[in-house]
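Q: What would this chain look like folded?
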Amino acid sequence: MQKIEIQAEQFFDLLKLKDISMWEIFSQMIDGQEKEIIFIDNEEKILFNYILPDNPEKLEEDRTEFSKQFSEKLTNMN
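A: My prediction, written as structure tokens:
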């Protein structure tokens, strides 16, 4: 499995600048092979990782599940 390291702060700043979602970027990276995307901080410490699936259907399932969990966490914070 290919491993891709991404500087989290720069990545999310770029998303804001380009007004694009991370899911759109991820969909462009799908090529039939799973990839491990590793988000790191400025000190090269791992913040979190994501296994990019090998097909768009699974990516959509992941996006839906992520949105659901994120929404639940926001609800619980209030």
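Helices lie at 8-18, 22-29, 56-77.
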